[in-house]
Write a structure and sequence with these properties.
- Helix content is about 85%, strand content about 0%.
- Helix 3 packs across helix 9, helix 6 runs antiparallel to helix 8 and helix 9 runs antiparallel to helix 10.
- The longest helix has about 35 residues.
- This is ABC transporter permease subunit.
- It comes from Pseudonocardia kongjuensis.
């Protein structure tokens, strides 16, 4: 049993690396043959652009700005969503209303919230708030589902022992629902990166979203592609980090 899991992990890493390599080769082939037009560069074109004197530092500053906004939004949105889910458990009468409020807020397009947020939290804070909203819904749904994991029989035992709602929450509901909550965080991390990029479209001074807008307006194809790939890579990194945390919580609490 101890050797099967590492073998599966190594096989999964090998398959993932093979898939990424094949995807890069296919994309490079499309660029070399011109099947998608001149706006589809080759891998060598992008590497040559990254090797320039200004491209690397420019992208690193943008990734740092977007990563910071996404991380702050992820933490704020996750904590707020978890607090609202806990409130629905402690005060069951509020649960239906909180569910509807979360659904309505999630239904509003993030792009429509940007102009409103600029006038309230400022241009620099918009990306963080949009990232928090993007991440919050996934955490709320996961937390609501996870905290409802214990069955009635388990909850009856706590009631017979005289446990309060807070004690039941901390000793029963939260440990049982933690794997599901972390699963929601896994989905929320890439959403926070996307929200930060969208929020940067509304006047941020730096970030991947700023590079995307500038590259589109000035038809800078290599910059556009490298910025887009940087956003994808940042989302993938955030996802993989949370996947590792999810595996640990599953082993520890199930």
């Amino acid at each position: 049993m101890t050797t099967v899991a590492p073998r599966r992990d190594r096989r999964g890493v090998l398959l993932a690396a093979t898939g990424i390599a094949l995807l890069v080769l296919a994309a490079d082939l499309v660029g070399r043959t011109g099947l998608a037009g001149p706006a589809w560069p080759t891998a060598t074109d992008l590497l040559a652009f990254l090797g320039g004197p200004t491209a690397g530092p420019l992208l690193l500053r943008a990734i740092g700005a977007t990563g910071t906004a996404a991380l702050l939004g992820f933490l704020l949105g996750g904590l707020a969503a978890l607090a609202v889910a806990v409130l629905g458990v402690v005060l069951p009468a509020l649960h239906p209303g909180l569910d509807r409020l979360a659904a309505v807020l999630h239904a509003v397009p993030l792009i429509a919230l940007g102009p409103l947020l600029v006038t309230t939290v400022g241009r620099e804070g918009t990306s963080t708030v949009v990232a928090a909203i993007a991440a919050g819904f996934a955490v709320f749904v996961a937390a609501t589902s996870g905290l409802a994991t214990p069955g009635e029989a388990q909850q009856d035992v706590f009631r017979v022992l005289g446990a309060s709602r807070w004690t039941t929450l901390l000793r029963l509901r939260f440990p049982a629902g933690l794997p599901t909550i972390v699963d929601g965080l896994t989905l929320a991390a890439p959403a926070a990166v996307l929200g930060a990029v969208i929020g940067e479209w509304f006047g941020a001074r730096r970030g991947i979203g700023v590079l995307l807008v500038s590259a589109m307006q000035n038809v800078q194809i290599p910059l556009l592609w490298t910025a887009a790939l940087s956003a994808a890579g940042l989302s993938l990194l955030a996802y993989l980090l949370l996947v590792g945390l999810h595996r640990y919580t599953v082993r520890r609490f199930t």
